[in-house]
Amino acid sequence: MIRNPVPWPDGAKCAVALTFDMDADSILHLEHPEDSTSRVSAISMLRYGPEVAVPRIVETYKRYGIKQTFFVPAWCIEQYPRAVETMLEGGHEVAHHGFIHENPTDGNRKEQAYWLQRSIDVIARATGKRPRGWRAPLYNFSDHSVDLLIEEGFVYDASLMGDDVPYVLRTKNGSLIELPAHWGVDDWPQFVQSMDLDYMMPIKSAAAGIDVFKQEFDAMWEYGGLFVGVWHPFCTGRLARWLEVVKLIEYMLNKGKVWFAPMEEIAAHVRTCIDDGSYTPRIDNLPYYTERVVVTQAK
Ligand SMILES: [Zn+2]
Asked: How far is the CA of 98 from the centre of ligand 1 (A)?
């Protein structure tokens, strides 16, 4: 079913990255700059992420001995330093997720480079290391993103949806490892209802929502894929949902042959396998298009 499964370490059947995007209230200020500060209930819902959920998530990871990746907008790193310290104390990776969750496809190349670089500086100050990975805010990977990431020395991207296994994004300037996910492993469609964020889903029961991710994991395990959860502390870190995630982690551990790792380690492993010839990735040459796609009706 998967033509080129990755040879995962120690004979693992699949790699698992339970990633969290700690957006906190950045998304509210971006969406409603004129009156975000008066939307106190929405702010409180989103602050639940750094204040309550992140310590809970890190504690669970510690109990099971797993290290993972948190994507954090730089504004949130400055606003919620304690949450970031908690991630670092747990030995987790803090990766790039924009400055204040701005949409890269809204800006020109220069503007995109500015926000990318400004956020790199914040991450380097907070963590002592430049970021190795990036997830575009709201998956908004632009036609400049790949070259900007290569210029800044990034190793991987985690914004695209083009495969079940890692693949390579290549341009004339270099290459990046892509660690793909998709909307089916994102927690917003399962659980988020917010009039302030204009996102209204019928909320699933905790068990039913997390069961969607379990099915995705089982399929990846069967065929040697990469399971990526794209989750948000304010959402999946809520108590009942997190209890279901704990059950899911135990299920994965009991099933066995699962490699839990931060995305930077997964990307480094894939790069090593490419270099030693044990893995032949799919290569996507970017840009996909160099001009607008215009189709006209035959005369
Ligand atoms: Zn986000």
From this structure: 8
pLDDT digits (tens, 9 = 90+) for 154-210: 999 999 999 999 999 999 999 999 999 999 999 999 999 999 999 999 999 999 999
Neighbours of ion ligand 1 (CB under 5 A): 21, 23
Q: How far is the C-alpha of 241 from the C-alpha of 108, rounded, in Å?
A: 39
Q: Specify the pairing of strand 133-134 against strand 258-260.
A: unpaired
**How far apart are the CA of 136 and the centre of ligand 1, in A?**
8
Q: 229: Cβ–Cβ under 8 A, 6 or more apart, which residues?
A: 17, 18, 19, 181, 185, 187, 213, 236
The pLDDT tens digits for 59-94 are 999 999 999 999 999 999 999 999 999 999 999 999
For residue 299, name the pLDDT band (cuts at 50, 70, 90).
confident
Give me ligand 1 centre to Cα 3, in Å.
Answer: 31
pLDDT in tens, 109-142: 999 999 999 999 999 999 999 999 999 999 999 9
Q: Distance between CA 198 and CA 196 in Å, rounded?
A: 6
Cis peptide before 287 (omega within 30 of 0): yes
CA of 268 to the centre of ligand 1 (A): 23
How many A from CA of 276 to the centre of ligand 1? Answer: 34
Closest CA to 267 of 135, 136, 147, 148: 135
User: Could you tell me the distance, in angstroms and rounded to a whole number, from the CA of residue 147 to the centre of ligand 1?
Assistant: 21
Work out the mean pLDDT of the chain and round it to a whole number. 97
